[in-house]
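Hi team,

As requested, here is the filled-out complex form for the zinc ion run. I kept the field names the same as last time so the parser does not choke. Let me know if anything looks off before we queue the next batch.

— J.
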Amino acid sequence: MEWDSALRDELLHSLHEWGVSPVRNKKHKRFQTEVLRHAEIVTRKRGPVVKFSSLKTNTTFPTDMEEAVEFVLRNIIEEKNLPKAALYERVNNIDGDDFRRPFYQNRKMNKYERKKYYKRFTIEQLDPFKRFAFNKISLSERKFRGWFLSTVDEDAGIIYEARLACHALQYEPCFHCKCRKTLRWNGGVSTSWQDLVCTKCNSMYEVKTRESLDRMHDDFDRNKFYGGSFNAYCKLKNSLEQDQKMFLVVLPRDFNNNRKGEDTHPVFIAEVEHVVPRIVSSNFNPALSTSEFHFASMISVRLPKRKWFDLPKTEKINYVEIMKRLFIEQFSLGEYQRLDAEYFEDESDNEADSELDVANGMKEETDVEKLKSAVENLKVGDADNENWDSMYG
Ligand SMILES: [Zn+2]
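And here is what came back:
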C-alpha cells in the first residue's frame, strides 16, 4: 500500500463527516494530525501470511450446514484476544442521537453541512469528542452484546459466511483457478479479508451479504461496500504475492428463483480493486491513543461483477439457540442469566426469533417492513452500523 494524497483526502473527508475540522479548535487540529500520521504508518505495515500449506490438509470444516454454523460461532466465542477498543460500550450524550455521521459533503457549495436529521442539534452538541461517552465492559459483556443485542445485519454476515463456506467447500470450484476441493474456510475473528481461501492459487475471498438482490445490485452500481478493518487489509495487502488475488463475494439474503425454478441466493463476485480508510465513532474514545486506532474501510471492486454460483436455500437454522448454548459453555449459566436480566428484564425472546426468520430468508410481513425502513435510513455515506466482531477482526 502506498500512502498517497488520495488516501489522505479520503481520511480528511471521513473526519469532516464526523464534524472534525482543524479550523475549529486545537483539539480537532491535533486529532487530525495524529490520525493522518497513524494512517500513514498503518498503510506500510505487513502482517503474518496465511499458512496455505497447513490449510491444504485441514478438512475439519463441517459438511453439515447446522454444524458449520456452530463451528463458525464457536470460533468467535472462544476468541479472547480482542483489541482494547472492543471492550468499551458507546453511549449517547445527546437525546435522539443515533450514532451516525452527522455531516455530508455538499459538492455544489464545496462545504460540509449537517444532514437534515441533525439540524435539530447544535454544532457544539455534535462535536464527536462531546457527543459520545465510552464505558468499559467485560469480555463476557462484549460477547453478549455482540450476539444477543445484535441486528439482523450483524448476525447475517457470520451466519451466511458459514452457510456459504459449507456449500462452496463441498460443491464449488475456486472462482479464479477453477480447481475443485481446494477452497478452505479461513474466517473468524482473528482473520479478516479472507473468509475463504484457495490452497491451489492462494486467492482470498471476503464474503458480504445484502438484505435483497436489488440492494446488492445498487451497491455494485455505486461500487462502494463497507469493509472490515483497514489496518488488517493493509497488513494483508502488503504481504501478498504479486499474482495473488483478493475477491469480494456478495450475496443477497432474500432468495430468488433461478432458471431451473429453484430457490437460491445468487452469489456474485468481483476482484477487490481499491480500499480506503474510514473513521468510526469508536475512534473518539478518549481512553484510546491514536496509535491503537483501527480504521474501518470502504471497498471498490473491479467491474463488471460476475456470477459465481447459486447458494441453495436451506432449512431454518436456530442459531440464537446455538449462540446461547455456546455462550453458557464459554462463560457460565450464571453469567448468561445475569446479563440477560440486565438487558432484557421485561422483554420476551420473540424479537430474536423473528430476526432469525429474516436471516434465513423466511419473509414475514413485519420483518420485511422493518427491514425496508431500516434500508431507507441507510443511504450511502450514512451507514455506521459498526459490527465490533467483524470490524476488529
Ligand atoms: Zn484457486
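Two things worth flagging: The pocket of zinc ion is lined by residues 174, 176-177, 179, 182, 198, 200-201, 203 (CB under 6 Å). Residues 5-391 form one domain.

Thanks,
J.
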